[in-house]
Amino acid sequence: MSTITELIHSIPVDPQTGAIAVPIYQTSTFVQEAPGVNKGYDYARSNNPTRAAVEKIIAQLEGGATASAFSSGLAAIDAVIKLLKSGDEIVAVDDIYGGAFRLFNKVYEKFGIKVTYVDTSDLQAVFNAITPATRLIWLETPTNPTLKISDIAAIGRIAKAHNCLFCVDNTFASPVLQKPLELGADLVIHSATKYLGGHSDLIAGVVIAKTAQLGEEIKFYQNACGAILSPFDSFLLIRGIETLHLRVKQHGINAQALAEYLEKHPAVGKVFYPGLPSHPGHELAKQQSKGFGGIISFTLKEDTAEAATAFVTSTNYFKLAESLGGIKSLLCHPAAMTHKSIPAEKRRAAGVSDSLIRLSVGLEETNDLLADLEQAFTKLPVPAHAENVLSA
Ligand SMILES: *Cc1c(COP(=O)(O)O)cnc(C)c1O
């Protein structure tokens, strides 16, 4: 049986009624026959049948022993960091998701957890950053917004050799393209707000654990700290996951066409997309992933914030918004939006130049998206030197 067939049919038919969709068990508590005698559920923070259904599907998708669903991606990251204790250290990817950076530096540093950021595409740098106190390696691949690719299997070996936990934020790739647990990760997290949900209609996070023991520890923090996914959002997430394979496939087809178009466009500076042979991580991405995803970043030749603003306010189908992974195409201007709080020098050094634009390529017709970009390029201000030529 194919994995897609398995996935679709692992979503249980309701044993009570035969309902083919998973019912939303909107209840806070469950009646017990005698103290401690129940049908597997006692209180809905600890467990809920709708949440249990989505957790089971996601564990299967990523190839883990268990999954735990949280009220956001950040709550999922938070649960993983709670495995550590004061004095422990983390080695993390340098262009990490901004919210994870804030959580590490503004919350966990206070509790005595130190984080070292390194370019994880350089294995020697990862190796050198490890100290006897390092307990966790934190990876994103591809990263946001420059789509940097790191070698999951090699970093997994470094983690093993140093007795560190290894967690991969697999939000950008999704388990359709990349399965970090098979490549040596102990834990995977997702902002299920993005591709897993897929319709820009919920905020959710998940942690998938390779072993049952690690899964139990995460479930302990899920219940002890309480940032659980609601029954309704669990239902929406199941509904999203049912079409994940088809969506991710089409996001990738659209993104490849757009990246190739952008690379040839005279107004474009650099294009960041792992599906392009010009991308430094192309070969590695081909080895460890089944595709290159739906996110593209590019810079303009006229590398100014003004030019980027003109572009991002001129598209029709690409809506200007943060977030990614939904059926509708989105675009954003990281220097003025998601990366605004990073000092300009540091931001530019990380490859996020003033004109960098990030696309989350949706599921519209490829040609409509190409035409939308094409007309937006005509709205760019004419550079000063070109005006001189015209008036001469
Ligand atoms: C959005 C995102 C998160 C945070 O998820 P939320 O659901 O917004 O809390 C974490 N990691 C990555 C890579 C993301 O894109």
Keyphrases for this structure?
392 residues, alpha/beta, Aspartate Aminotransferase, domain 2, Aspartate Aminotransferase, domain 1, 2 domains, seven-stranded mixed sheet, 15 helices, 12 strands, binds pyridoxal-5'-phosphate, Cystathionine gamma-synthase, cystathionine gamma-synthase activity
Describe the overall structure.
The structure is a single chain. This protein starts with a helix and ends with a helix. Strands 1-7-6-5-4-2-3 form a 7-stranded mixed beta sheet, with helices on both faces. It has a 5-stranded mixed beta sheet with strand order 8-9-12-11-10. α2 (49-62) packs parallel to α9 (231-241) and α3 (73-81) packs across α4. It has 15 helices and 12 strands. The chain is of the alpha/beta class and 392 residues long. It has 2 domains: 3-241, Aspartate Aminotransferase, domain 2 (3-Layer(aba) Sandwich); 244-391, Alpha-Beta Complex (Aspartate Aminotransferase, domain 1), CATH 3.90.1150.10. It has helices spanning 3-10, 49-62, 73-81, 98-108, 123-129, 152-161, 174-177, 212-225, 231-241, 244-264, 282-288, 305-312, 344-349, 366-377, 384-391, and strands at residues 66-70, 89-93, 114-118, 134-140, 165-169, 187-191, 205-209, 268-272, 295-300, 319-320, 330-332, 357-360. The mean pLDDT is 95. Pyridoxal-5'-phosphate is lined by residues 72-74, 97, 99-100, 140, 144, 169, 171-172, 191, 193-194, 203, 205. The site of pyridoxal-5'-phosphate (PLP) has 16 residues, from α3 and α4.
